[in-house]
Amino acid sequence: MDAVFPYETLVYKEADGRRLRLFMCHPEDRYAADARPAVVWIHGGGWQGGHPEMLLRHCRLFAERGAVTFSIEYRLMPRDGHEAEPGQARSVETCIEDCRSAMRYIRIHAAELGIDPQRIAVVGDSAGGHLAVCLATIDRYDAPGEDASISAMANAVVNCNGIIDCTGRWKKVVPIVETGQSESDQVHAWLMRHEHAKALSPLHQVREGQPPMLIMHGLLDATVVPEDAVRFYEAYTAVGNEAELILYPHLAHAFVLFDYKTEELEVLKVIERIDQFLTYHDYLPMLAQ
User: Fold this and answer.
1) What is the average per-residue pLDDT within 21-50?
2) Architecture of 8-165+207-280 per CATH?
3) Where are the alpha helices (DSSP H) in the chain?
4) Strand partners, 99
5) Whole-angstrom Cα distance, residue 228 to residue 160?
6) Which pLDDT tens digit goes with each residue over 182-191?
7) CA torsion sign, 108 to 75 to 92 to 231?
């Protein structure tokens, strides 16, 4: 147990010799017979860094509001220029796969965890925002042997400065296609890689019937440009999906993290806005006036 933010750990999957964990916080008055909403957090770090403990304070705050909360440990890709070692992600698809496995675990064990399997909200930051939005838009990349009849998709999503388009500057995470030397071979390889990038991009996987989403972005963000958030919001709502876009003129990247670059008061304001979104959608109780 953490002395400040008490939590439990659950192993949701074993892969490549690793036991992947969910860090869980729950209300003090939780009982297994409850059917509480769940709030699942996914950390950022460019799919290569970060750790689930970064979001334990966030989990604790929302557990105090009545939800069962989780922070997902997923396999990370090796740093640029290095080959994946056992226990590391081979690609972004592996990161998506692990998050989908975690969601399935929560749903399969919902009754014993005291969770309503139809009220699972996911919140992600940066690369974690990408993974969170993938859980609203991309219904593939499953681990071998998993029960595909159990949905791995979120019922609501909060995207904090998430990467939603891998066809531009973020194409660096998409493997280069080996090709012959002719011009036609090179063009074909470029097109194949571009299609792969689109398949990993929530922006290019928008369709009708996807869950409600809160999209939050800072206008000072130079890591994931705010124009991407606007493009995603426009595409998402154009097909009839429910979304809300909040732009912060004074905030830069990763503004939802404590003890990083944003002042604590500003982080708490962002968390309050997430709370309002989740309350509106019946994931949290109304605050007493």
Assistant:
1) 91
2) 3-Layer(aba) Sandwich (3.40)
3) 56-63, 92-108, 110-113, 127-137, 183-199, 226-238, 264-280
4) none
5) 12
6) 888 889 889 9
7) positive
Backbone angles phi, psi at 97, to 5 degrees: -55, -45
Residue 14: CA count within 13 A, CB half-sphere: 1
pLDDT at position 202, please? 98
Residue 181 has pLDDT above 80, yes or no: no
CA distance 64 to 27: 6
DSSP 139-208: ---PPTT--TTS----SEEEEES-----SSGGGGGSPPPP--SSHHHHHHHHHHHHHHHHHT-GGGG--T
Question: Could you tell me the two tokens for 94?
Answer: 């592996």
Residues 6+ apart with CB under 8 A from 83: none
3-state secondary structure of 78: coil
Residue 199 near residue 144 (C-beta atoms within 8 A): no
pLDDT value of position 117: 97
Q: Which amino acid is at 262?
A: T
Q: What is the pLDDT of residues 191-231, one digit of tens each?
A: 999 999 999 999 999 999 999 999 999 999 999 999 999 99
Pairing of strands 213-218, 243-248: parallel
Q: Look at residue 182 in the predicted model and tell me its pLDDT.
A: 81
Sheet containing 68-72: order of strands? 8-15, 18-25, 68-72, 36-42, 115-125, 156-160, 213-218, 243-248
